[in-house]
């Protein structure tokens, strides 16, 4: 009996529903292998996923490169293996080369391009890794089209990054409830949560008195942001929640919000926001993650000029001036998200490719 085996650096909590869905559908034909922490050490595996097989992550050169230990038996098996499309994982090169010699099928899953983009020098190495995979699964339809042009003879599939099942995506349109501003993400310089906090303080008197800023996340800027809140007496208007991954809690927080904001580069938080029907204000000229393709300007999101205080001030205030319009958009925002960014849609790509090779 062939199995679908996915090997990951880590299996964080935001992937749990995806891995659980695969496990429920494929049952004992699915196995997950992962280490405990990522290159960025604060990103860790969700230890509650019971069928995960723990492997050892051995980082070298100040966590720049990784060798995963404890997967030898998997490498030589006749199962379908999915590994990360990440040239920094040395053991993945070994897996690809060994299985190429043995004529075993190996799928690469990850970003089509390096963070620096498709024309960067580092893409030369990434392209060689891509050439060794039997098929490639990327994170967005846009990346699928782009990469297919570069590799016309390679099978390129898309599995859009997703967080929730279809039946978990819902929204509310209550004028009395949806009034806050929400930020979900790490509290780092590149994500610019502190920039948003200072923006909120600057326009506070122009916002309705009931509006609060909800900040969900952890990171190195948390203490600095806490001090700013205390210094400017914002305790009644700003709530810092730390890391939250509980679905019901997040649903409640999003339901209370008129808009979400990505003051820095956007990632998975954009599809999370859309899954709850909440439009997003997005910084325009950032090195965004591929999930930015979900944006339909003035339908589910609005851009502001990056790092421009006047622009972000105006756009936030415009959301409140056009509150009824954005409340009426919430149902359509959710419905579009269900079609492209559900756990079911994401999982089907993996199930279909497994079925193809397991016959």
Description:
There is one protein chain. This protein has 359 residues and is α/β, with parallel strands linked by helices. It folds into two domains: 4-162 and 342-358, Rossmann fold (3-Layer(aba) Sandwich); 166-340, 3-Layer(aba) Sandwich (Rossmann fold), CATH 3.40.50. Helix content is 36%, strand content 19%. The protein has a seven-stranded parallel sheet with strand order 3-2-1-6-7-8-9, with helices on both faces. It has a six-stranded parallel sheet with strand order 12-11-10-13-14-15, sandwiched between helices. The protein has a two-stranded antiparallel ribbon with strand order 4-5. A hairpin with a 4-residue loop joins strand 4 (56-60) and strand 5 (65-69). Helix 1 (16-26) crosses helix 12 (343-358). The longest helix is centred in the last third of the chain and has 18 residues, at 323-340. The model has no long low-confidence stretch (mean pLDDT 94).
């Amino acid at each position: 009996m062939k199995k679908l085996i996915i090997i990951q650096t880590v299996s964080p909590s935001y992937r749990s529903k995806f891995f659980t869905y695969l496990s429920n559908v494929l049952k004992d034909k699915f196995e997950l292998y992962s280490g405990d922490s990522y290159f960025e050490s604060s990103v860790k595996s969700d230890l509650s996923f019971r069928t995960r097989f723990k492997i050892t992550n051995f980082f070298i050169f100040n966590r720049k490169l990784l060798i995963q230990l404890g997967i030898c038996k998997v490498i030589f098996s006749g199962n379908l293996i999915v590994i990360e499309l990440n040239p920094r994982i040395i053991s993945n090169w070994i897996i690809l080369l060994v299985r190429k010699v043995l004529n075993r099928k190996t799928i690469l899953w990850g970003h089509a391009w390096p963070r620096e983009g498709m024309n960067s020098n580092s893409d030369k190495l990434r392209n060689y890794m891509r050439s060794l995979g039997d098929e490639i699964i990327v994170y967005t339809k846009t990346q699928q089209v782009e990469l297919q042009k570069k590799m016309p003879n390679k099978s390129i599939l898309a599995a859009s990054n997703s967080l929730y099942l279809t039946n978990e995506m819902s929204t509310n349109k209550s004028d009395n409830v949806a009034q806050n501003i929400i930020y979900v993400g790490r509290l780092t310089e590149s994500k610019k949560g502190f920039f948003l906090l200072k923006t909120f303080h600057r326009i506070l008197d122009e916002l309705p008195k009931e509006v609060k800023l909800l900040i969900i996340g952890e990171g190195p800027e948390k203490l600095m942001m806490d001090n700013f809140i205390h210094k400017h007496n914002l305790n009644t208007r700003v709530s810092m929640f730390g890391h939250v991954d509980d679905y019901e809690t997040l649903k409640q927080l999003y339901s209370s919000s008129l808009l979400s904001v990505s003051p820095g580069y956007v990632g998975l938080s954009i599809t999370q926001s859309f899954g709850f029907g909440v439009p997003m204000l997005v910084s325009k000229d950032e090195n965004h993650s591929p999930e930015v393709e979900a944006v339909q300007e003035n339908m589910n999101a609005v851009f502001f000029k990056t790092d421009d205080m006047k622009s972000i001030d105006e756009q936030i205030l415009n959301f409140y001036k056009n509150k009824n319009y954005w409340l009426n958009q919430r149902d359509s925002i959710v419905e579009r998200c269900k079609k492209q960014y559900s756990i079911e849609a994401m999982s089907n790509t993996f199930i279909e490719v497994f079925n193809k090779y397991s016959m």
